[in-house]
Amino acid sequence: MSKRDELIAKYAADLKEKCNVNPDMDFLTKVTIGCGPSIYNADASTVSGTDQGELDTVKKNFLIGKLGLKDSPELDKAIDAVMEQYGKSNRNKYRAVVYYLLAKHFKKESVYK
Q1: Four-way CATH pick for 3-112: 1.10.238.120, 3.40.1180.10, 3.40.50.970, 3.30.1050.10
Q2: Block means of pLDDT (10 residues each) for the chain, length 113 residues?
Q3: Which of 2, 24, 86, 92 is deepest in the core (most CB within 10 A)?
């Protein structure tokens, strides 16, 4: 099993156990690949739910940049909802899992086709 496959399995476990989501493995794989080499860096592979600067980066680079959404309060609400779903007390929120949940929330799976 490759390192990427191991990480995808870890992300799938987080989705099931912490987010109560049965993951679409094909889509999760595409989102993980879309994260690029950041998944192999301990700091870059996670998102801090309490760092506003990091949450702003998720909004700007992922929601607006990658998914092509327009900046609005709805984006902040979605990020808050995903952080809540993942568990505010959970320190390690994997970027690929956060992006997966946000893409599903906005029904933007087609971006990864």
Answers
A1: 1.10.238.120
A2: 96 96 97 96 93 95 97 97 92 94 97 90
A3: 86
